[in-house]
Amino acid sequence: DKVFLERQKNIIRLFKYINQHCGCKDELQIASTFSVEGSSADYTNSQVVKQFLTYYKQGLLPRDRIFSVLNEIHLKQAISFFKLLYYAKDYDTFYKTAVWARNYLNQGLFLYALSVAIVHRSDTYGIIMPPIYEVFPNYFFNSEVIHEAQQWKQTLSSSSATQKYLIVSNYSGTYLNLNPEQSLSYYMEDVGLNAFYYYFNIRYPFWMEGEEFKLNNDRRGEQYYFIHQQLLARYYLERLSNYFGEIESINLDEPIKTGYYPSLIYTNGLEFPVRPNFAKLSEYFYRYGQSGSFKSRYVYSQQLLKDYARRIRDVIDWGQVPTKDGKQLNIYTPEGFDLLGNIIEGNPDSPNIRFFGSIQVHGRHLLGYSTQPLNNYKLAPSALEHFETASRDPVFYQFYKRVVLLFQKYKANLLPYAYNDLFYPGVKVEKIDFDRLVTFFDYFDADITNALYYTLQELDKENVQVRVRQQRLNHKQFSYRININSENAKEAVVRVFYGPKYDEYKRPIDINENRVNFVELDNFRWQLQAGKNIIERNSRQPYWYIPDRTSYRDIYKRVLGALTNNEELQLDASEAFYGFPNRLLLPKGTPSGQVFQVYVIVNPYEAPKLQQTRLENEYYYPRVGTGNNYLDSYAFGFPFDRHIDENNFYVPNAAFQDVVIYHKGGGRY
Q1: How far apart are CA 215 and CA 382, in angstroms?
Q2: pLDDT digit string (tens) for 546-595?
Q3: Where is the Hemocyanin C-terminal domain (predicted)?
Q4: Strand ranges (DSSP E) for 476-575?
Q5: Cα–Cα distance for residue pair 269/255, rounded to 1 Å
């Protein structure tokens, strides 16, 4: 498809050298002649054009200033520009608007709004964006790596030959461990993990209206819970592999004992804020020397966080939600959990955003320990205040443990699943067999050329390349087999989970304490035949887990090859998806082997209530707003989402099986 290839080529170039004005002649021509105001008829929503032009004329966030989506002023401007892109009447208007903005808007604001628009516009579906860690390397690689790259660049000659440089990098935990938690930096700072969380929040922004952009079709509130519950469960498994125990839960009235030294530096030279051990959160300490007026409301985040959490707990116990127009909504309905997710996330689908606020916005401001700026255009946000860096901070997991417990408080008020809720008549799981499970560290290269600055002559040559090499956790690819006996031919859904069997002291964990620690490994439909069925799956098949992302250079090279030489474009469509990195599918084992357990349950297929439709050109990964992000009508995480009644839980169509994960190589990185 030549049209798609041209779009892929043109859009991906907008991400190149994001911190500088574009050097491409055709793009410079568009940027110098295009006018949003003069093209106002080319947008399907005139109000959006007026709003953006108002912001633009008043003065947007200047270039080279730090953009944070959690800053209210920055967010309003980003939303305004996103809507301008989204409501462009055709691709040509969309592209010209993006090219113009690439040269005149703040690069962080531009990148964020453009990325959201690419994901949500129908005519850019399938466009692959370059990995965010190559677009903004400063947010993913330690400051000494950026410094070394820039220092090397200064020593280059003006040769026209290709000049390459390789930097071997470690993680922040090898420099300064303010807290033992930071020894897990190889996992928390994995670029794939950080990119996953960034792309999830690009796909489902917390500020986006569900009705206008059809996010309600995707059970966004319930999905918000499930993503964070799974992140916590996966992190807990990694902790067990390193002899750590439970994730601590934060007490807002006590100092936060877990410090964090990000080792990151912004593109303008500012360092990411550091949180010391035993950081005091009370307003006296947190806002000392800062503006105390209510216009600086983030300095009151501690009290607001307590207020919002208390109100949510009260609603869960009461069962009624007060809406902004004074009505009451029953929260214990089939859609109630999704509604609760909207309330807790603080998105526009919350029935009363003024009353329930945004826990995550104030939590990230408070716990990240960044100070309230005197000027909204001169920020130094913490790692928690960017989605691409949030999961690097151990407190991210401690904070979201509190959030997940709010959801679990609701689930505790629901009856456990009855035997018939779990039982599939005539179906029995007879055997589960896994290949030997082995993890190891291998080298991974990322291109950080975007972290450098170039003259116009150098931009024309494009002959400089700097790569960073890191050791990242990986696993040997494996297969597993499930033997199922079925009395009749029937359609089923198979769910495969894995989780811990023992805690850090080698004590068996009670199933009701342990159920939130299970990670979903696979989830698929299967046509059972009468009699014996042997299902074989491998670790590459679950669509939720995706391979390493292709670098910018390789994407561009392959697209050009397809355009000029009629070569087939070899790219995995999942790269336009937000999936979890496949290489982190398993937690790091131990040399002698660490015992985990696998759980398989087979249930009848129940079609989702929303009629799922796929467009003709849709890949296997789901399009936003179509309801194709879930397989059936069961709750996310079923059957571990509710309290377990052990008298009813153990059904023949489900089974547990111990597995052992070995780690090869001994060292961490």
Answers
A1: 29
A2: 999 999 999 999 999 999 887 777 777 777 788 999 999 999 999 999 99
A3: 416-663
A4: 479-486, 490-500, 519-528, 531-538, 545-546
A5: 29
Pairing verdict, β 594-604 and 328-330:
unpaired
Strands (DSSP E) along 244-289, which ranges?
A: none
Two tokens at 407?
A: 């959801």
Residue with the two structure tokens 């996992």: 187
The per-residue DSSP string of 386-424 comes to: STTTGGGSHHHHHHHHHHHHHHHHHHHTSPPPPHHHH--
The three state secondary structure string of 451-519 is HCCCCHHHHHHCCEEEEEEEEEEEECCCEEEEEEEECCCEEEEEEEEEEECECCCCCECCHHHHHHHCE
Q: Look at the alpha carbons of 133, 135, 139, 145 in this order and tell me if their dihedral is positive or negative.
A: positive
Decide: helix, strand or coil at residue 329: strand
Per residue in 461-480, pLDDT tens?
A: 888 999 999 999 999 999 99
Residue 584 near residue 542, CB atoms below 8 Å: no
Rg (CA), the chain: 25
Residue 525, strand partner residues: 493
Distance CA 528, CA 494 (A): 10
pTM over 0.90: yes
* Domains defined along the chain, listed by start: 2-127 (1.20.1370.10), 178-412 (1.10.1280.10), 419-663 (2.60.40.1520)
Using CA atoms, how far apart are residues 288 and 87, in angstroms rounded to an integer?
44
